[in-house]
Amino acid sequence: MAGALLLGGAVAALFGTALPAHDATAILQPPPDKIVIEVATVNGSGCPLGTAAIAVSEDNTAFTVTYSDYIAKAGGNADPTAFRRNCQLNLVVHVPQGFTYAIASADYRGYASLQAGAKGTEKASYYFQGSPNTASISHEFKGAYNDNWQATDTTDWAQLVWAPCGVQRNFNINTELRLDAGTSDPTKTSFMTMDSTDGDISTIYHLAWKECPRA
């Protein structure tokens, strides 16, 4: 899955130690020009070729990653390797000249059917290319559970870590679904998806913006 896609958002800046903050003027409104995102690579058992797509909001404040085959299973007749599924997105983010961005929040949605005694975990990791640090946040759901689920990762404005001004750094998002059958009935299957009722799941990333210092 490649090619340039118009983007309008930011990704959740959960990188308190990823990169140093830059001296730039904070702004609340996104830049007038669109961001362009190139999907360098999409890899993982949760996003086989052709099953993940990116769409961008028109107001340049968010982008959505949609999956159609992202499901983890445990127990019953589930494949022993199906308890964990992941998807890594490597994004080339072209920001309008004079601006930089940070991830302000990320929203994840899906559906879970967990037997009593089982649990499911959604985890997301974020990092810029070249950074030695990776920030990760996990959300756990315990059975018995049979409903839609939603998880949100957020970062306060003062703690946002910005992409370096004037330097192209790819941005990586690695998501994971993990099932643990635990003490549940071993004959029954638990599953968790990043998936809406129509078969697609929307994962939304919200961007924050500021101006870079002038040379």
Q: What does the secondary structure layout of this molecule look like, with pairings?
A:
Elements: E1 4-7, E2 25-27, E3 35-43, E4 52-56, E5 62-67, E6 71-74, E7 84-94, E8 99-114, E9 119-128, E10 135-142, E11 145-154, E12 171-180, E13 190-193, E14 201-211
Antiparallel strand pairs: 1-3, 2-14, 3-7, 4-5, 5-14, 6-13, 7-12, 8-11, 8-13, 8-14, 9-10, 9-12
Written overview of the protein:
The protein is an all-beta fold. The chain has one domain. It is 0% helix and 52% strand. The strands form two sheets. Strands 2, 4, 5, 6, 8, 11, 13 and 14 form an eight-stranded antiparallel sheet that branches. A six-stranded antiparallel sheet has the order 1-3-7-12-9-10, with no helix packed on it. The chain starts with a strand and ends with a strand. 40% of the residues are buried.
In short:
Helix content is 0%, strand content 52%.
Number of domains: 1
Sheet-strand content, in percent, reads: over 45%
Query: How many beta-strand elements?
Result: 14
CA-CA gap between termini: 37 Å
Q: Count the DSSP helices.
A: 0
SSE pattern: EEEEEEEEEEEEEE
Residues in helix, %:
under 10%
Supply Rg: 18 Å
Mean of all residue-level pLDDT scores: 77
Largest sheet: 8 strands, antiparallel
Q: What would the principal axes of the Cα set say about the shape?
A: elongated
Q: Determine the structural class based on helices, strands and strand pairing.
A: mainly beta
The low-confidence runs, each spanning 5 or more residues with pLDDT under 50, are 1-25, 196-202
